[in-house]
Design goal:
Blueprint: H1 10-41, H2 52-69, H3 73-95, H4 102-106
Helix pairs in contact: 1-3, 2-3
Length: 107
């Protein structure tokens, strides 16, 4: 990757953005693999797809990381909220909307 300040034309800049976008997609594919593994592990630990304290912790971590890196924390939070909801929906397709432990939690 070439630093943005070293790009001399819009074509050069766009090529770098396209390269970065491919890298971001590859990282999202890798993250989805971890979500798929969570689908396998959660039933054995009697965990539901949605765990609100974990959602809050992930968003807090993202906000702090974005702030420290100089990225708008609101943008990061918005992006991750969408990513988290997609991930939970992916898990719920297998685990069910209430997950395996919701009935146990109600007892």
């Amino acid at each position: 990757m070439k630093p943005a300040k070293d790009c001399q034309t819009m074509a050069e800049l766009r090529a770098q953005i396209d390269l970065l976008d491919r890298e971001l997609v590859a990282l999202l594919v890798q993250r989805a693999g971890y979500i798929d593994r969570a689908i396998e592990l959660k039933p054995g630990e009697n965990l539901p797809a949605r765990i609100e304290p974990r959602v809050a912790a992930v968003l807090d971590n993202v906000r702090a990381t974005a702030r420290a890196a100089g990225l708008d924390p609101e943008l990061a939070t918005d992006l991750w909220q969408r990513l988290i909801e997609w991930s939970i929906a992916r898990e719920e397709r297998v685990l069910g909307p209430s997950g395996p432990s919701q009935q146990d939690q109600q007892k």
